[in-house]
Design brief:
The complex is a heterodimer of chains A (260) and B (323). Chain A is 29% helix and 27% strand. Chain A is of the alpha/beta class and 260 residues long. Chain A has one domain: Rossmann fold (3-Layer(aba) Sandwich), CATH 3.40.50. Chain A has a nine-stranded mixed β-sheet with strand order 9-8-7-10-6-1-4-5-11. A two-stranded antiparallel ribbon of chain A has the order 2-3. In chain A, strand 7 and strand 8 form a beta hairpin. The model of chain A has no long low-confidence stretch (mean pLDDT 93). Chain B is α/β, with parallel strands linked by helices. Chain B has two domains: 173 residues, Rossmann fold; 116 residues, TPP-binding domain (Rossmann fold, 3-Layer(aba) Sandwich), CATH 3.40.50. Chain B is built from eight helices and 16 strands. A seven-stranded parallel β-sheet of chain B has the order 5-9-4-1-2-3-10, sandwiched between helices. Chain B has a five-stranded parallel β-sheet with strand order 13-12-14-15-16. A three-stranded antiparallel β-sheet of chain B has the order 6-7-8, with no helix packed on it. Chain B starts with 5 loop residues before the first strand and ends with a helix. The mean pLDDT of chain B is 92. The chains are: A alpha/beta (260), B alpha/beta (323). At the A-B interface, strand 2, helix 4, helix 5, strand 7 and strand 8 of A face helix 3, strand 5, strand 7, strand 8 and strand 11 of B. Strand 13 of chain A pairs parallel with strand 16 of chain B.
Chain lengths: 260, 323
């Protein structure tokens, strides 16, 4: 099976945002403090699990990157993938989902061998809110499975475990397909082996030129700090020892909606 | 002035406790007296959603399909496409779906099928002549993107942040149609037995929620018992889902569910923008955290500085003693 994992990475939220908020500064922040998001990690881990089960499985990764030297490329390569390459995150920002999906689809159609399975996190980095995986599946006319929690190869294709409404379900899935993976304790990303991390340090990477897409439908007019909810009054603190606090809390919680 | 763009709200079949009220009120306010179409889908076993008058002239479409069994985007996309034809929604238009994974997936896929602009998960929406302006959260809720488009058709999911309008109710026209578009073949899916027996987050008056500070199954065991005593629903932050303490269906936050309870009881939750994006501004937050400088106290109405290991057993005992 040929798997392509699409990864974006996020800016480590432990670090303050840059004082100048624009897309270039934010992308620099992402490249300076890179992390795989929980959804990226889950997608990569599912690919690795499929390779664990069948060593003939080939895994390639295509990463949204600031440059060929983006540390995220090296981090991903530390998992001993068959190929890791990037595309220009500044040229193809994920907020513009239609354009990015169209460009990625045009590129993916040229890849040989064509991937059997595309794995992508449920959200593609800090600038996507979950549209990109669905838009990409539509652009490629591939079956799309969202909220995927687990995957197992079968003779017919795949068996997917996914969230369907309030329940989890197991369902067969023919290939090719695109699966958007969500976070779960079972698919937390493993640590890479040290020898693979060391090997990745010697690698060089390339940014792939994605084909031009059509005219963008959305325009980004500005980036701003998100407004915080404003409280009309200060938080009322419940003081006293634990017993007194528990008593006051119990009273409060037993009558939800009644002002404390 | 009435915007020269037709508004329609597209509603998947609603689950237990789910309500489109806030979305409908916000869409009606956005229509500013212009027409609003509500396309409410249901299957043969689903009760029709009660039509609601709004602050603008509304056509309420009760659209049933006798073959709709499985509520997923594969089935809903062809139904919404037929519904748009049946209702003859004119262009330019703005199509709005409820927030949440299903609404968001349908919005993106419909946008692709219609050649429309995908607005994504919108916080605020304005319509100004032919321009649609949206604000969307990014960078874990720390940043807001301001975007606009003049595309003929725009599709997005909407978590309205503005308070509900109290405009007088306008005319309501009720229409019923049976849809007949072919649906995907039945899926050989097996529902996995769930150990999650807690009430749904949707519609809950009280939500008990834990964060990374709960540090393990023990804390969530206590929270579950407290929620059970209170008849509350249970939720958790993204890291608790990562850790396997809470199922992903109970994740609250920007990437998870949006909840609107009377009281949100947050234990061991620091109060990141990513998490608080999933809690309605109308909800009263009661927060427990051992760190008095935790950001959650900046948003909470009532706070307790305490170690959960000491407080939760005492709270449980108090609830038991007064049951």
């Amino acid at each position: 099976m040929n798997i392509l994992v699409l990864l974006s990475g996020i800016a480590d939220p432990k670090w303050a945002l840059p004082s100048t908020l624009d897309t270039a500064a934010l992308e620099q922040q992402r490249a300076r403090y890179p992390l795989l998001s929980p959804f990226d990690e889950a997608a990569l881990e599912l690919a690795l699990k499929l390779r664990d089960a069948d060593p003939a499985t080939q895994i390639q990764a295509l990463v949204s990157a600031s440059s060929a030297h983006d540390p995220l490329l090296r981090h991903v390569a530390g998992f001993r993938l068959d190929q890791v390459s990037g595309f220009d995150a500044t040229r193809w920002p994920a907020w513009n989902g239609t354009a990015l999906a169209s460009a990625l689809a045009a590129h993916l159609r040229t890849r040989t061998p064509a991937p059997d399975l595309l794995l992508i996190g449920r959200e593609f980095g800090d600038l996507d809110e979950g549209s990109l995986p669905a838009l990409l599946a539509e652009a490629l006319a591939l079956p799309f499975r969202s909220l995927v929690l687990g995957v197992r190869a079968t003779a017919e294709g795949l068996e997917l475990v996914r969230q369907q409404g309030p329940a989890q379900e197991s369902r067969p899935q023919a290939l090719p397909a695109l699966a958007a993976v969500t976070n779960h304790a079972r698919n937390r990303l493993r640590h890479p082996l040290l020898k693979n991390v060391m090997a990745a340090k010697k690698m060089t990477f390339a940014l792939i030129e994605l084909p031009e897409a059509g005219r963008p439908q959305l325009q980004l007019r500005g980036v701003a700090t998100a407004p915080q909810a404003v409280r009309a009054s200060a938080c009322r603190m419940i003081e006293g020892d634990v017993i007194a606090q528990a008593r006051a809390l119990a009273q409060l919680l037993k009558t939800p909606g009644v002002p404390a | 002035m009435i915007p020269p763009r037709h508004l329609a709200v597209l509603l998947p079949p609603m689950g237990d406790g789910e309500s489109p009220d806030k979305l409908l009120q916000a869409a009606a306010a956005l229509a500013r007296g212009g027409p609003l179409d509500v396309l409410a889908l249901r299957g043969p076993d689903g009760a029709a959603l009660p039509p609601q008058a709004t602050g603008t002239s509304t056509r309420w479409w009760d659209l049933n399909h006798p073959g709709l069994q499985r509520v997923d985007a594969d089935a809903l996309i062809p139904l919404f496409l037929q519904a748009l034809d049946v209702a003859q929604i004119p262009s330019p238009s703005l199509l709005l779906l409820p927030p949440g994974p299903l609404g968001e997936e349908c919005a993106a896929r419909l946008a692709a099928r219609l050649g429309a602009a995908p607005l994504g998960r919108c916080g605020d929406i304005e319509v100004d002549h032919h321009t649609v302006r949206v604000r969307r959260a990014a960078y874990g809720g720390r940043v807001e993107l301001h975007m606009d488009t003049e595309a003929a058709v725009c599709v997005g999911s909407w978590r309205p942040t503005a308070p509900a309008s109290d405009a007088p109710l306008a005319e309501l026209v009720q229409l019923t149609r049976t849809l007949d578009t072919p649906l995907p073949a039945p899926v050989a899916a097996q529902v996995l037995e769930s150990t999650d027996k807690m009430p749904a987050l949707e519609g809950a008056r009280l939500v008990v929620s834990g964060g990374r500070g709960m540090a393990g199954d023990t804390g969530f065991g206590l929270l579950t018992r407290i929620a059970d005593r209170l008849g509350a629903s249970l939720g958790g932050s993204l890291p608790t889902v990562d850790a396997g303490w809470v199922p992903v269906a109970r994740q609250i936050g920007q990437s998870g569910k949006f909840v609107n309870p009377k009281v949100y009881f947050a234990v061991g939750i620091s109060g990141t923008p990513q998490h608080l994006a999933g809690v309605s501004a109308d909800s009263r937050i009661v927060a427990v955290n051992k760190d008095p400088s935790a950001p959650i106290f900046g948003r909470a109405d009532v706070g307790v500085v305490a170690e959960w290991e000491a407080l939760l057993p005492a709270l449980l005992a108090e609830l038991d003693s007064t049951a």
